[in-house]
Each structure stands twice: as C-alpha cells, then as structure tokens.
Structure prediction request, 191 residues.
Amino acid sequence: MVDSKLQIVHDNMHQRQSIGHLIEPAPNKAQLTQAFQAALTAPDHHRLKPTHFIQIETEQREAFGLLLADAVADLGETDPVQVERVKSHPFRAPLLVLAVTRFQDHPKVPFFEQTLSTGAAVQNFLLSLQAQGFSSIWRSGAVVESALLKRQLGLNDRDLISGIIYIGTAVKAIPSRVDVDSAEFVTTWQL
Prediction:
C-alpha cells in the first residue's frame, strides 16, 4: 500500500509541467482551499508564515491587465506594443494567483529563507493543483518589481511578489517531461 501511494506522489511530481495557455474550468473554491492548505505546509523557519496569496478571478482579469500595463509603464516601458501585450497577460488563464513573500524581521530567519519558504509553498500549491487535474504556469518578469503594482495590491515596498501563477485546464496534452539523470546534479562531499 505504501509503495502505491509513493508512486502516485512521484508520478504527480514528474508529470507537473508549465502550461502557457489555459482554459476553463479553473479550480472551484474547495479545490483552491485544498491547494492553499498544501502550500502552507511548506518549510517555514520559526513559523513566520511569510507566504500570502492574492487571487485574481476571471471577472477581474481585464482590470488586472490594465493595472499590469500601468505598472510596466511606471517602470519606464514606453513601447505601446509591449504595454498592450502585458495588458493581455491575464487572459492566458481563467484564474491567476499571486504568490507574495511578506518579509518579517527576525534575528534567526533572514529574508532569503523567507523567500525560499514561499518557493516551497508555491511548489506545493502547483503539485496540489496538478493532483486535482489542473494545469498551471508560474511567471514573474520585471512587472513584479513595480512599486505601483505593490501599492495597488495593498503590499509594502519590501514585500516580494514571488510570481503570478496562471491556473486552469490545459488546452491540449503536451509531451511528457524527459527524465533527467540525477547523478549529473549530485555529488558527495568528502574531507
């Protein structure tokens, strides 16, 4: 029994891939709650809970696209084609979730550990979505550094938008990921 459960977990991890174009259906509230709960089990030194999520639902995508366009313009983008392109990004998927690291000062937990905790939380979130039959892609880009974007989302300047996760159902199946020989990436240290 344990072996079959382990195989299911490993298969889910090996099958997860970024899918750039997603359609309905998106996860419902219960499915999202399950994914958020999985995310918040990530390693978290001193249980600071630095990871937070902001949902952008289907009906808010146009408004969020306008905000992204304003944010890249605020960052200095002057090419109208690029500004318009960013405006359409939210329409890549029916649901978007922003992963945010809200840094907290702590003598034993540096900011980089809090960032890594959010990275682990996002991975758990993606794997939970995958296990529930959904697809996703985790993106960032210069726009996540925008002070304007952070303000409009109710964040502090030092908060880190760790990425925008696009969620939905894959339009088509994509080829399986090619197995990687882990021996090429693992060494054993000796004195």
Notes: The helical segments are 2-15, 29-39, 61-74, 80-88, 111-131, 147-152. The longest helix spans residues 111-131.
